[in-house]
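Chapter review: from sequence to fold.
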Amino acid sequence: MLACLRCKERGRKSMKLASPRVIAALIVIIFTAGSLWISTTQHVAPSRESFALFPMTLGEWQGQKSSFDKDIIEALKFDDYLLANYRRPDGQQWVNLYVAYYAQQKLGSSSHSPRTCIPGGGWEIEKLSRVVINQTGLSSFAVNRAVIIKGRDRQVVYYWFQQRGRHLTDEFRVKWFLIKDGLLRSRSDGALIRLVVPVGPKGIKHADQSLIDFIRALGTRFNRFVPS
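The token string follows.
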């Protein structure tokens, strides 16, 4: 009888240990199957305006467009992108804006998370958190905030994923809604939006405020370029 009780107890422990592994395995299977299905299915690409028409004046901010080298464009595989530096009139503060838009996201052609790309550029992520952006007359939304360093240089990065009407910060939720919307709405379009500002003599709080001010200046302008 004692031996039987011990066997049952070991069985219960094994089940407790196995459950998280089984759940993790099921999640992997679901996302793998969903990713393969998205990659082989043709989805609807909603009409939108090209980033060539994106305004270079945002309130007091004045922008100047830039571009990537051909090899970077081929590696990122986006359908449209925006790369520009915006400055305030005093010229003391600039914000780099990068947006990558994908008409159909699939394996090898989807939004790349800065969390994995930043270290590839030689930068080290010092701190990663989230910030809620409050805008007058508009809904508040969260963005990822990363403080990055390379040698003596320090920058603050804000980024989020704008995906079919949603502002997302969690890569897991990005993948989940990608599969869900692909199945229910025949859509997998979306964009990564990333802002970078250097930390200057005025310190990190000033850098953060510059990014918040710039996002407020953006308002709803992305709606013409990244469909809901």
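Two observations follow directly from the output. Residues 2-8 have pLDDT under 50 and may be disordered. Helices lie at 2-39, 70-76, 114-120, 171-184, 204-218.
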